[in-house]
Design brief:
Blueprint: E1 2-7, E2 13-19, H1 21-24, H2 30-44, H3 103-119, E3 123-126, H4 136-145, E4 151-155, H5 160-166, E5 172-176, H6 182-187, E6 190-194, H7 195-205
Parallel strand pairs: 1-3, 3-6, 4-5, 4-6
Antiparallel strand pairs: 1-2
Helix pairs in contact: 2-3, 4-5
Organism: Eisenbergiella massiliensis
GO molecular function, one term: structural constituent of ribosome
Protein name: Large ribosomal subunit protein uL4
Length: about 210
């Protein structure tokens, strides 16, 4: 069972917390982590790329010249792919790039991602994140205190003051425990969890 320090908003150590091995101490499955990231990126794709095949390009209904005797190569349409203004060979059409991972794979991938952050000492636990007002300066000060330049802050409840205060920081993102995903974890340099968030994640994924 991993034991990590708990910090306050001033960056001072105020205690320790035991992280469950069932979530933060599993064997890292790099393949599942990779698949989870690929799935999320694939599911974001619009898939609206479109080009016209020769059957969709306007014109070209008449044979441009007779079959024999002109000295030209035989042609059946001016909209064949080799002609300027012709159709595209194997033209892309709108498609759905998304694919599914089953629930066990998703859970295993998330646990692996969290475990990798613990192993790399890139997981920080804070006792709480509370702000009296929406102010980017205050949030940045907390990140500076924790020595976080690029990170993902995971909170348990949608606290507007926390979320809005972090919104203007280009390298810091916030997410809820209910929307936590592998891509955001792996993209972040450091994962910052509140104690409540740790408890919720362990309850859901243990």
């Amino acid at each position: 069972m991993a034991n990590v320090a708990v910090y306050n908003m001033e960056g001072k150590e105020v205690g320790t917390i035991d992280l469950s091995d069932a979530v933060f101490g599993v064997e890292v499955n790099e393949h599942l982590v990779h698949m989870a990231v690929v799935q999320q990126l694939a599911n974001k794709r619009q898939g609206t790329q479109k080009a016209k095949t020769r059957s969709e390009v306007s014109g070209g209904g008449r044979k441009p010249w007779r079959q024999k005797g002109t000295g030209h190569a035989r042609q059946g349409s001016t909209r064949a792919p080799q002609w300027t203004g012709g159709g595209v060979v194997f033209a892309p059409v709108p498609r759905d790039y998304s694919f599914k991972l089953n629930k066990k794979e998703k859970r295993a991938a998330l646990k692996s991602a969290l475990t990798s952050r613990v192993q790399e000492n890139k997981l920080i636990v804070v006792d709480e994140l509370k702000f009296d007002e929406i102010k980017t300066k205050n949030f940045k000060q907390v990140m500076d205190n924790l020595k976080v330049v690029k990170g993902l802050v995971v909170i348990n409840e949608n606290d507007k003051n926390v979320v809005m205060s972090a919104k203007n920081l280009a390298k810091v993102n916030t997410t809820l425990t209910s929307t936590l995903n592998v891509y955001d974890i792996m993209k972040a340099g450091t994962v910052v969890l509140t104690k409540d968030a740790v408890k919720t994640i362990e309850e859901v994924y243990a």
